[in-house]
Amino acid sequence: MNTEIEDLVRKFVDGDHAAFAELVRRYEKKVYGVAYRMMGNHLDADDVTQEAFIRIYKNRESIKTASFFSCLLMKIATNFAIDLIRKKKNRFVAIDDDTTASQALKAQLIDKSLGPDESMESSELMAHVKKAVDMLPPRQRTAIILHDIEGFSKDEIADIMECPQATVRSNLHIARIKVKKWLTKNKP
Amino acid sequence: MPCHHFIELKVDDYLTGRLTPDDKRLFDDIIGRCPDCRSFLEEQRAAYDLIHEVSRPETPELYWSGLEKSILARIESSDIKTNNEIAADDAGPHRIWNAVIPLAASFLIFLVSLSMGDKVGKVAGSGPTAANTVEINSAQTSYASLIESPEIIAISYIAASPPGTFGF
Questions:
Q1: pTM here?
Q2: ipTM value
């Protein structure tokens, strides 16, 4: 954590409005990225991002360090996103739903094995993987997005999700197996 | 520790390149000789590689400035208080009023009932004579006038009103 961020966080905790504006600028893309992957649409991601910053503003007096700031911000964002997901449960479809997989995508999946050396060139294929991630239960989805996409460590994720590291680990392993199975099953 | 426990414990750090050199050596050694651990790693790595490649959503630069403005406007326009400020407000003068008003109302009711009891006691002790009938009437009048006094009406109104009506 660089000293510039620490300085900004200290000023923000002391009520400096400009410091808060700067922190919004620095963290909005990361928060939005996680929110978008969790919610799957722009409107909800925008809602989650705004709410995360508003709530951290309200809780600024509890912030002790810069690393705590980013962790708390992510915690607020992911918890709010999980709440929203649970409220919109009817949006989720069964894991074996194959209706949206196009023929072209199926062909790509035949050609490309799911091996580690395969590169992801097609945005359609990426959308398919994203769909597999979207099928996961909220907490497994949160763990996989934070770890495999955003690069948070298990330690940080345990803080964000308020659970033991072992739970994060099992969420990650189960989520990966589910994603792999879903993608394999949806190959024609 | 059985080899698969070590692999399960370290596979995420292995995938993200966070393993220490010693752990990496041991990890590679186990993977080289245990088919089950190798199979587990391959499954995890296949999914990780796919998920890891999912790109960030593309958002126009204009959106970010709009988002910043929107967040800052919400903070400036609405009366957003920190949790400590809310707690301080709760502990402020409003809380004193919350305690004082019911206490004052109870005290007044106590005084009135005391005064009434005194009058009734006198009446009960001496029987209905012309003199104490006048006394009872005058006591009833003073009680009625007290009940109808603006202070009592105001206190009753405040006490009966829902919380928050008068700012406390």
A1: 0.63
A2: 0.72
